[in-house]
Amino acid sequence: MAREDEILILDILEVLQKYTDKNKGKSQKEIITILQDKYGYKNLYKKRWTVKDNLSKLIDYHNEKYGYQKKITYKESSRNVPVKPKKGEKETRKKTTKVYIRSDFKYIHDFADEELRLMIDSLLFSKQIPSDQREELIKKLAGLTSENFDSRTKYITAQSSNVPVNRELFDNIKVLDKAIKTSKKVSFYYTTHIVEGFPYAKLELQARKTSEGKIREYIINPYQMVATNGRYYLICNNDAYNNLAHFRLDRITDIEILEDEERKPLQKFEGVDNRFDLQQYMREHIYMFAGKSENVSLRIKKNALGEFVDWFGTENISFTRQTEEDYTVRVKVNVNAMRRWALQYGLFVEVLSPDHLVEGIKADIAQVMENYK
Q: Do 303 and 229 fall into the same domain?
């Protein structure tokens, strides 16, 4: 059964969105063919003026709504066509009139293909989203543009993994978002990987337990969710302590909002001003370790400066000395994070101060040497 005429304009819009983009357009004839072949319309070639009129309405509406960022574009050409004389009028010479013809209609989508590709790559290489949920999200992203984009996703692959993944990640984000907005506490269980079934060992996620063997329940004051190092983290506080802590969202299960319990104000914690600077906090906590930040001085080889800036940025570092081979740099950072980072880049970095950090790194190096004896 043919669609009603009043629905035609919506179907034309869908055809433009699905089959055209900034690189590939359709003529009015091609649009009519798609409507007949895939949308059940009949005899549209006889109603091509109706199609033309609806296209004009769509163009006027969308271009007026979005202003200079035109959503529907087209090419326009003109030609002279003969005009038939009026009834009873004697034709003395041929009359013509100029007619404007539109073609190559294109719908300009909100996301460019390269932008969608970037988002899809981020999903593919996420280690915390189950593979079937990733595939579903990729299909949704691909649906934000024309079908011409589909073929490009065939050449995108991600490394598969057998590591167990928590399927509650998106629910956790939803619940935490509400809890943060309403300043409420939350309760949840926190999982960790364990190995079961020797000699046929298998990794499993299991909730942390107390010393008595009972599942441990966490009651937390949530403040911010952040994405760093390919993971989602919750910045929060446990009432038993007077500092900020971090939990990975993909390790949280059975989360609930405690509607009757107000969250502790963020400003109660040491080192947190009336306005919490999340960007500064993230620069200082590169590995999302809890604990205080200190000023650290280190010597770094010049060929490793790019790696250093990638991790610490440029806003909270200062250069105090330079030689032909290295720089001496001062940075404020979480001490536990710097201890790990210094080991990771030990071939290029020497931490100079504070003394307790230097001694901790020396102890770590000694333990590594012991492991390799």
A: no
